[in-house]
Design goal:
- This protein is mostly helical.
- It folds into two domains: 32 residues; 32 residues.
- 69% of the residues lie in helices and 0% in strands.
- The longest helix has 28 residues.
- It starts with a helix and ends with a helix.
- The model has no long low-confidence stretch (mean pLDDT 82).
Amino acid sequence: MLTKANLLLARNLTKSMVRFHGHGGIPGENIPFSLENRYRITAVFTAFTVLGFGSPFLIVRHQLLKK
């Protein structure tokens, strides 16, 4: 059971982690790709979305067409 002291300790720990390990609140600084080229972002997003959504359907189709 969490007591008030434990909750306070957890809150202080998360505050210090955000305060000292944060990236300053600059949009796009903590993501693993660049936001500078909007056309590249659109192409990469589309490719990952199509592959991620379409893969199960292609796998099922392949399995059904196997002899």
